[in-house]
Amino acid sequence: MINIKNIIHLCNFFLTSLLQIIELGGKGGDMGKRKTRSFIDKVTKGTGPRGARCEICGEIIQNIKTIRPYKSKSGNWRYIEEMHKVCKCNEKEILIDKSIS
Ligand SMILES: [Zn+2]
Fold first, then answer.
1. For residue 30, what are the domain limits?
2. How far is the CA of 63 from the centre of ligand 1 (A)?
3. For residue 39, how far is its CA from the centre of ligand 1 (angstroms)?
């Protein structure tokens, strides 16, 4: 029997393996590295814990890129890419699913 917890665990496992494969594959040449880097950023949706701390919550402010798919009037899927500076103060309003007008 499969429950939700197992599914989430499997997802994490696959994502980790994927990242490892990409990291291994990106070791040849600068072009490959740059591509690999930006793809990992998209997958992990962040650049890791470094940079300035928020004065209000004390968390490290992270630059996070969100990619939101939406269906255009012509019926094609399009993507909006946005950069956000995120800490505990605003993570909920940024990471929640918003409808695109
Ligand atoms: Zn904060």
1. 1-44
2. 13
3. 27
| Domain match, 72 and 94 both | yes
Ligand 1 center from residue 69 Cα (angstroms): 27
Q: What is the pTM (predicted TM-score) of this model?
A: 0.40
56: CA distance to ligand 1 center in Å? 5
Other Cβ atoms less than 10 A from the Cβ of 86: the count is 22
β-pair partners for 60? 53
Asked if residue 73 lies in contact with residue 96, where contact means CB atoms within 8 angstroms, the answer is no
Indicate whether 55 and 26 sit together in one domain: no
Our count of domains for the chain comes to: 2
Per-residue pLDDT of the chain (101 residues; tens, 9 = 90+): 667 676 666 666 666 666 665 566 655 555 555 666 666 566 555 555 567 899 999 998 988 888 888 899 999 999 989 999 999 999 888 877 666 66
